[in-house]
Amino acid sequence: MLTQLLVFVSTVVLCVSAQNSTNVTTADVEQAFTTAKIVPDVLPSFNPVGLLNVVFLDNVTNTTVTVTPGLNMTREQNALRPTVSFVSNMTTFAQQTFVLAMVDPDAPTPQNPTSAQIRHLLAPNITLNGSLATGAVLVNNTPAISDFLRPTPPVGSDPHRYILLLFAQPANFSSVVPGILNASTPISNFNISAFAEQLGLGSPLAGNFFLTGPDANSTNSTSTASSAASSATSPASGSAAGSTTNPPSSAVGMAELSWTGLTVAMGLLGVLVL
Question: Is the preceding peptide bond at 108 cis, omega within 30 degrees of 0?
Fold first, then answer.
C-alpha cells in the first residue's frame, strides 16, 4: 500500500513540474527587465540563460497565479511563499547548487527609495528536483538567511517591483557569507548586485518580477516592508523552519494545478519549498 501511495504521489509531482502555462522566452524576460528599469536600477546587465517559473497560491480563492514578468498582483495573491522552478537547456546545471534572492528596490516608494533594497528572500544551498527541460523544482536544503517576507507596500505608494533572481552558488559561499551578512543583518538598504560581486555569484542565471501596490482598503496602521525593515530581522530559524504565517508549499512549474491536488501532494510528501 505504501509503495502504491509513493508511486501515486511521485506521478502527481512529475505531472505538476512538467507543465508550463506560459510561452515566455529568455529574450522576453531580458526585455521586460530593461523596460521596467530593473536594468540598471538593480542590475548592471541581465542575460538570462534560463527561465524562473514563479507560482503563488492565493489561499483565499484557492487558485494559483503564474508570474509573467511585470505581472500586476494584489497583496492577497502573493501573501504566501511562492513556488519556484528553473527551466534551462543547459544540463550542466543539474548538479549545481543555487542562491535564490528576492528584492524590492522601491521602498518605501519608487519616488523616494531610501530603504531600498529590501531583502525579501535570500536562500542559499538550493538544489533541483526534476527535469531542467520542463521545470526543475527549487528545493532549499537549509534554512534561508532571510526567509520570505510578503510584499507590503505602504499606503499612498505606487506599485513596487519585486524581483526574484537565481544565482549559481560558489563552493566557498557558506564559509564566506557569515562575514558579510547573516540572519541578524537588517533587511533594508541591501544591494543584490554588490552582494553578488562580494560573494562571487556572477550574473543571475534567471529572473522574474511582479508589481504590487497597497491594497485599496489599506490604512496607515498597515505594516509595510520599509517599517518592518527598521525594526525586524529575517531569522534563519523560525519562519524558515516552520512559520505558521507562511506555511511551506510544494514547488511547481505551472498555474493550473487544482488546490485539492496540491494539498494532497503537500501532505504526502512534506516537501520544504521557499
Answer: yes
Strand order of the β-sheet with 118-129 is: 63-66, 51-58, 83-87, 136-140, 118-129, 98-104, 160-168, 206-212, 71-73
Percent pLDDT > 90 in the chain is 68
pLDDT over 90 (residue 217): no
- List beta partners, residue 101: 122, 165
Q: pTM score, two decimals?
A: 0.74
Bridge partner list, 208:
164
Distance CA 239, CA 81 (A): 11
Q: Which residues contact 256 (CB under 8 A, 6 or more apart)?
A: 19, 21, 64
Alpha carbons 38 and 82: distance in angstroms, whole number: 20
Domains by residue range for the chain, with CATH: 2-269 (3.90.280.10)
The amino acid occupying position 177 is V
Is residue 251 predicted with pLDDT exceeding 80? no
* pLDDT given at position 183: 84
